[in-house]
Each structure stands twice: as structure tokens, then as C-alpha cells.
Amino acid sequence: MPSPQRFAERFTGVSAVTKANVYFDGKVVSHTLLFPDGSKKTLGLIYPGSFRFETGAPERMEITSGSCKVKLAGEREFRPYADGESFDVPGKSAFEIAVQQGIAEYICTFLPAETQTRRTP
Description:
Order of helices and strands: EEEEEEEEEEEE
CATH class: Mainly Beta
Number of strands: 12
Shape: globular
Largest sheet: 8 strands, antiparallel
CATH topology: Jelly Rolls
């Protein structure tokens, strides 16, 4: 089994939006980072539960701590993801994410529309 990928531990030269993005009564919370090139990411926490999100733009979700299960729109089965793994979600789509225990931490990167879907381990 491949070793987990290491994602950024720090972002420098960014602006942080102080108002949190709070979903599902506080069970999913993130903060937005704005980069000088106009791109943005969110850093977030997902507490135990199962949640459905819709996407406008394509997104890459990088799990930086903990674990979760994800089912993309059109898929039948949930797939497990853990610390160091990532998955892409197409734009104008949806996904379900479930955390069974602990807290899953993530970095969500909003991707250009032409980005192809990929998954890691």
C-alpha cells in the first residue's frame, strides 16, 4: 500500500476570511483562504455524521487528518479516504461524505473547470 501523500502544512502570503463557513449545525466548519493569484481554498473540519454537498466549481478534497467515506454523484458505493489521500469532485455535481468517529480535517481546492477528476492513494 502506498504511503500517504503529504499536503501543505502552511500557506503563506494569503488572506484569510474570518467569517466561518458553517454547515449542518456546526458539524462541518471551514475558513476560506484567498491567494494572490485569485485562487481560493478552504480549510475545514468534519465531525461525525453523514453530509451531502453540491458543487459549483470542480473541487479537490485533500484529507489531512482523520478518515471519511465518500460517494460521488452517480457512484453506488462509498470509498474510504484517510490522512494523505484526496479525491476530485466535478463542478455542478454533488458528493456525500461520512465520518464515523473523530474529526476529519481537509483542504478543499477550487479547481479550473477543465481539470480532470483524479483520486489518490
